[in-house]
Write a structure and sequence with these properties.
Largest sheet of chain B: none
Oligomer: heterodimer
Structural class of chain B: mainly alpha
Number of helices of chain B: 8
Strand content of chain A: under 5%
Distance between the termini of chain B: 54 Å
Low-confidence stretches of chain B: 87-92
Number of helices of chain A: 8
Radius of gyration of chain A: 49 Å
CATH superfamily of the largest domain in chain B: RNA polymerase sigma factor, region 2, helix turn helix motif
CATH architecture of the largest domain in chain B: Orthogonal Bundle
Order of helices and strands of chain B: HHHHHHHH
CATH topology of the largest domain in chain B: Rna Polymerase Sigma Factor, Chain: A
Number of strands of chain A: 4
Helix content of chain A: 25-40%
Order of helices and strands of chain A: HHHHHHEHHEEE
Mean pLDDT of chain A: 67
Strand content of chain B: under 5%
C-alpha cells in the first residue's frame, strides 16, 4: 500500500467516492495529514464534487393544480351548476314568441288583387312591376292569368325556391309575354328583368402575378 | 398507473429532471421542451413501468431526449441571458465556479457527475440511466472529475 505520483489521482478519486475499504481509508487519512502534496492534490479533487445546485423549476409549474387536488369537489360544483341551469330553464321558460316569416309561395294576379294597394305592395315586394295605369274594372278572373311567384333572393338557402319553380307565364300566347289583354281591354304589363350586358373587358393575358392595367 | 399517481410522480420528479437537463442545455425553453417530451413519453408508457423504477426511467428518458435534442439542434448558442446573468451573479466564489467549469465537459461526463453528486445514484443506477456498464461509469466518472480538476487547476493559477 503506497501512494505515488502515478496512483495519487486514483487514491484521491477512490477516497472521494468512498470506494476504499476501512484499512485503505485509514492509511489515506494518515497520509493526508502528513503529506502536503497529497493535501494539495486532494483539495483539487474535492472541488470536483458538486455540492449545491440551485436551479429551481419555474414556480408556476411547482404550484399544485387545484383542479386535480380537489377533483371530487370540482365535479360537485360543475354538476350543481349544470343542474341549476337546467332547472332554471324548466321553471322559467322563455316567453318570447317565435315569429315565423310566412310568405305565400304563389300569387295569382287577378284583376281584383291588382286593384288593392296591399296586393300592389306585395307585388312590388316580389320585384315584379305592376303598371299603375292598368285599367281594370272587372272582377272576372282571366283564364290565362299569369302566375307569378315572388322573387326571393336565391342566395338565401332557407327562402330560395328550386330552379324549376321559376315564374310561370301563360303558355297560350307565348309571343306576347309582356302584355296580357283581359276580356275588357285591361292590360297588365309585366316587366321583364333587365339583362345585364357583359362589359367588353379585355382578356387578361400574361402572368397572374403581374397586374395589368387595361386602361393603358 | 392512474392519473393521480402520475401527477404525484410528476410533482416529485419534475424539479430533479428539470435541474438535470438544464445543467446540460443551459436554456430554460429548451429544457422545458425536453422535460415536457420526457413526461409525454412517460404518460404513454405509464402502465408498463414498475413504480420503483419510474425515477430511473425518467432520468434515462430525459437524458436520451436531451442527447437527441442536442444532436438535432443547430450549432448555435441560445442561452437565456437572464438566467445566466442570475446564475453567474449568485456564484462568484471559486467553489461555485465549478458549476461553470462543469459546462465545459461533454454531456456524458457532466451527466455522470450530476447523477452521482446531485441525485446520489450509485454506479449501477447511473449505468442504467446512461446505458453504460458499471465499470464504464466508474471510468467516465474518474475521467470527468480529472478533467474538471485540471480546469479548476488551470483557472486558479
Amino acid at each position: 500500500m503506497n501512494i505515488t505520483t502515478d496512483n495519487i489521482e486514483e487514491w484521491c478519486f477512490r477516497y472521494l467516492e468512498k470506494d476504499l475499504d476501512s484499512t485503505e481509508q485509514k492509511f489515506f487519512e494518515s497520509e493526508l495529514t502528513s503529506n502536503k502534496a497529497l493535501q494539495k492534490e486532494y483539495a483539487l479533487w474535492k472541488k470536483t464534487k458538486i455540492t449545491d445546485l440551485v436551479i429551481d423549476f419555474p414556480t408556476q409549474l411547482n404550484t399544485p393544480l387545484l383542479r386535480y387536488n380537489m377533483q371530487l369537489l370540482w365535479l360537485c360544483i360543475e354538476l350543481s351548476i349544470v343542474v341549476g341551469l337546467s332547472l332554471l330553464s324548466v321553471c322559467f321558460p322563455s316567453t318570447t314568441p317565435i315569429v315565423k316569416d310566412v310568405l305565400p309561395t304563389k300569387t295569382y294576379i287577378t284583376i281584383d288583387t291588382i286593384k288593392k294597394d296591399i296586393q300592389q305592395e306585395y307585388v312590388t315586394y316580389s320585384k315584379h312591376e305592376v303598371v299603375k295605369e292598368a285599367n281594370v274594372s272587372t272582377s272576372e278572373t282571366p283564364l290565362n292569368a299569369p302566375i307569378i311567384q315572388p322573387y326571393i333572393d336565391s342566395t338565401n338557402s332557407v327562402t330560395a325556391f328550386p330552379k324549376s319553380e321559376e315564374p310561370i307565364l301563360p303558355t297560350t300566347n307565348p309571343t306576347s309575354i309582356d302584355s296580357i289583354k283581359t276580356p275588357k281591354d285591361s292590360t297588365v304589363k309585366i316587366a321583364t328583368p333587365k339583362k345585364i350586358k357583359p362589359t367588353n373587358r379585355k382578356r387578361r393575358t400574361g402572368s397572374s402575378l403581374i397586374p395589368i392595367n387595361n386602361d393603358l | 398507473m392512474k392519473e393521480k399517481e402520475f401527477n404525484i410522480v410528476v410533482e416529485q420528479t419534475s424539479q430533479r429532471i428539470y435541474r438535470f437537463v438544464f445543467k446540460n442545455l443551459k436554456s430554460d425553453a429548451d429544457t422545458k421542451d425536453v422535460v415536457q417530451e420526457t413526461y409525454i413519453k412517460f404518460w404513454t408508457k405509464k402502465d408498463d413501468l414498475e413504480k420503483e423504477k419510474v425515477t430511473a426511467w425518467l432520468f434515462t428518458t430525459a437524458y436520451r431526449t436531451m442527447i437527441d435534442f442536442i444532436r438535432k439542434r443547430k450549432p448555435q448558442f441560445n442561452i437565456d441571458e437572464e438566467v445566466v446573468a442570475e446564475y453567474t451573479d449568485t456564484r462568484v466564489d471559486t467553489t461555485n465556479m465549478v458549476h461553470q467549469y462543469l459546462d465545459l465537459l461533454s454531456p456524458v461526463f457532466k451527466s455522470t457527475i450530476l447523477l452521482r453528486d446531485i441525485e446520489g445514484y450509485n454506479y449501477a443506477e447511473i449505468g442504467n440511466i446512461l446505458n453504460l456498464s458499471e465499470s464504464q461509469v466508474k471510468v467516465y466518472l474518474f475521467r470527468a472529475r480529472k478533467k474538471l480538476k485540471s480546469i479548476i487547476e488551470l483557472n486558479e493559477i
